[in-house]
Amino acid sequence: TDEGLDGRSDFIRGAKDIAKVAKKQVGKKVGRGVDKMADEYTRRSYKRFEEEDDDDDYSGVPGNDDGYYRHSDSTEGHDEDDEIYEGEYQGIPRADSGKAPGMDGVMTAEAQQFRDLSAYEGERRKDQEELAQQYESILQECGHGKFQWTLYFVLGLALMADGVEIFVVGFVLPFAEKDMCLSEPNKGMLGLIVYLGMMVGAFVWGGLADRIGRRQTLLIALSINSVFAFFSSFVQGYISFLFCRLTSGVGIGGSIPIVFSYYSEFLAQEKRGEHLSWLCMFWMLGGIYAAAMAWAIIPHYGWSFQMGSAYQFHSWRVFVLVCAFPAVAAICALTTMPESPRFFLENGKHDEAWMILKQVHDTNMRAKGYPERVFSVTTIKTVKQMEDLVNLGDGAAWHEKWRIKLTTLFHQVWSNFQAVFSPEYRRTTYMMMAVWFSMSFSYYGLTVWFPDMIKYLQKQEYSSRTKVFIKEKVEHVTFNFTLENQVHRQGEYFNDKFMNLKMRSMVFEDSLFEECFFEDITSSNTFFKNCTFIATLFYNTDLFKYRLVNCRLINSTFLHNKEGCMLSDVSDENNAYMVYFVSFLGTLAVLPGNIVSALLMDKIGRLRMLAGSSVISCISCFFLSFGNSESAMIALLCLFGGISIASWNSLDVLTVELYPSDKRTTAFGFLNALCKLAAVLGISIFTSFVGITKAVPILFASGALAAGSFLALKLPETRGQVLK
């Protein structure tokens, strides 16, 4: 402080103190803008002092231009009380400038300058309540018709892409393991990586959709999914394929939270529950599409090509490519649809929202034969805004502006996420977390456990048909046919030829092979244990030494061994067809549950539908103990899927209606991310008990569903309420 100011340096100290408080209020978001703010406050203090005391002379104070501090060009020529100057935190009103406060006055000015956040939230909440009521009446005037049905099919494609993503990896694994030499741990990681990606994507895109818009965020998310799904069909290595499927999952993770929130904001109260439930049918269509395409494409090995031994493009890669089509179609269709008008109103964009609502009204009225009807709404309530971005002026570098924007956006998203756990929503959020977790843990755990149990039962039945040969002697015989599911013990083979054949699940124990010839052999799950080979030639076979367990080789030779993965057990085509068929039936079985939930959602309420469906699903779990055959397990899978889908539909509708529009996709995205985490845990735990016991999966699933149905009844009913 310059002592030449006649002791009136309190103005400078006051300005600096106010700047410090501003910095504390907005955190580190403003960056360098805070320093400019301090300079601006200081300049104003001097100017106000000059206005009060025209006789004082500050000409001796060094400075730039005509004041002690150089001011920004952006403030020049504007009214000092009304302008928004460079670096100012724009949403906070200023203190009165008519007096020159002392230190006590500075603290009063601080209290006036920085409005209490609870008071601001109170005003914003009041605006939201008024907007909710008016918005509902506007939707009633717009009606339900052509526009909503068009949006229904557009968003349905995005939801269908999510359903496809769940099944892609499971369908290609039996064939991709040959191309990429996948071990069991690698196959397990590839199966779970999609869920991990979707977990991250749901949280990130859900948070962004509340800040930059539903439509824009969904377009970005689907574009990422499409691009990396396309790349994953061409990459050759395991790591690159894993990365592409992970990133593809991150993209599609935003589909569910955004689609339901987006569509709900075009639906009037009496139509919301029913039509959101109808929208869920596209997830079922995604599963059916994936199963049908896998059935039609993957077994056709002729649909492939290769360039040397380094690059191979087999039919399963064609299937991966085809599975990206729903996302691409959704992107193309979504470009023709507008942003949610509710999002615009929540962010103070009145004119944009009005134009979209007028478009909805006019589209529906023309389709119904009333083109003469005029949209009567002239003014719509908008919610009070508090801008967080800082204007650094035209001189700032572009990368600095982007850094500030991204940092501010991150703080906005994080602040919105924290608001989901504010006292007003804390109990609801914790209850919803428990319900989402219990539902996902049991549903995904069982839906993966069912196919694994079917495979286990198939193996058990296959093993029961194993033929055993003991002490057989074979001489001068040519084997040129498939050898399958046999065990040969203490056999003797002299001058035999094994040529152009496949060996599946073959075991030779304590046997002797003398002057034998093995040529062009393809094997799976085939082993020679404690055998002796004398003067035997192996030519162009995949009988690698790891298949020869404790064997003796005397004057025996391996020539031109086949290249490729050394897999102990490769799934055959029949098993692959069974996987597609079971998935197709399990997905199709949810159709009755979808129809029933859609028709009853607005009649019996969300909570009764959720709790009732969970209780019936819990009871159905006890029938798993009777599933001792392949057909019984398929029937139980269809039963469980058809019942539990009503719970999922109710949960989606309830999540949309429990949170206000400015937090809706953030909360939905977080809960959906928790859902995917529970899915990973459920799949890992349930599949570990395949072939060991049924009791643990039954107890886990039924216990989780019972807890979820009990907690669901503690949630508030949202039927008949306007959208917050």
Describe this structure in words.
With 724 residues, the chain is α/β, with parallel strands linked by helices. Among the domains are: 245 residues, Growth Hormone, Chain: A (Up-down Bundle); 94 residues, 3 Solenoid (Pectate Lyase C-like). 60% of the residues lie in helices and 9% in strands. It contains 23 helices and 16 strands. It starts with 9 loop residues before the first helix and ends in a 12-residue tail after the last helix. The N terminus is likely disordered. It is found in: Cytoplasmic vesicle, Secretory vesicle, Synaptic vesicle membrane.
Map the helices and strands.
Blueprint: H1 10-26, H2 32-52, H3 103-113, H4 117-142, H5 146-180, H6 184-212, H7 214-232, H8 238-252, H9 255-264, H10 269-279, H11 281-297, E1 305-307, E2 311-313, H12 315-322, H13 325-334, H14 341-346, H15 350-367, H16 398-419, H17 426-463, E3 467-470, E4 473-475, E5 478-479, E6 483-489, E7 492-494, E8 497-509, E9 512-514, E10 517-524, E11 527-529, E12 532-534, E13 537-541, E14 548-549, E15 552-554, E16 557-559, H18 573-588, H19 590-604, H20 606-621, H21 630-658, H22 664-687, H23 695-712
Parallel strand pairs: 3-6, 4-7, 5-8, 6-8, 7-9, 8-10, 8-11, 9-12, 10-13, 11-14, 12-15, 13-16
Antiparallel strand pairs: 1-2
Family: Belongs to the major facilitator superfamily.
Region (Disordered): 47-81
Biased composition (Basic and acidic residues): 67-77
